[in-house]
């Protein structure tokens, strides 16, 4: 059961995920979470660095869709200036939003990776749906009220994964 929470890859931040690294794995599409993955959960707009990351993906023909459990207003405000598709109120870790995003991309499941900062929603959901997954360290150590409970369970799971030698968590405080 624990393996359902294990990401295929683990990075410090989204910027470690480059078009070149994705193409080397034959990845042509990205389903990414928004809050604490792309920008801080309380940051409404894309930073210049995130805009450039999206641009680099587009220039390299890698499709990117934002799939978030947040409400429409939040997700639409963020994605509209980037001209990217999105799914709000995704109900992750349920599989539906992942499959809907895949269908819109018109790619094979093996050509798409799910990226997120939460094991309980992004990684568990992506794994359950059969995608490759990449866990990023959350941008902020604080969370919205709805996420705080998940983080406690997540820390427990990460500790179990580490004890088994399956992951070395980069998000630990030194």
Draw up the topology in text.
Layout: E1 9-11, H1 19-23, E2 29-32, H2 48-59, E3 63-67, H3 72-79, E4 86-87, H4 96-105, E5 112-116, H5 119-128, E6 132-136, H6 145-163
Parallel strand pairs: 1-6, 2-3, 2-5, 3-4, 5-6
Quick summary of this structure?
With 174 residues, the chain is an alpha/beta fold. The protein has helices spanning 19-23, 48-59, 72-79, 96-105, 119-128, 145-163; strands spanning 9-11, 29-32, 63-67, 86-87, 112-116, 132-136.
Protein traits:
174 residues; 37% helix; single chain; alpha/beta; Rossmann fold; 6 strands; six-stranded parallel beta sheet
Question: Can you characterise this structure?
Answer:
The structure is a single chain. With 174 residues, the protein is α/β, with parallel strands linked by helices. The protein has one domain (2-163): HAD superfamily/HAD-like (Rossmann fold). 37% of the residues lie in helices and 14% in strands. The chain is built from six helices and six strands, in the order E-H-E-H-E-H-E-H-E-H-E-H. The chain has helices at 19-23, 48-59, 72-79, 96-105, 119-128, 145-163, and strands at 9-11, 29-32, 63-67, 86-87, 112-116, 132-136. It has a six-stranded parallel sheet with strand order 1-6-5-2-3-4, sandwiched between helices. The radius of gyration is 15 Å and the shape is globular. The relative contact order is 0.21. The model has no long low-confidence stretch (mean pLDDT 92).
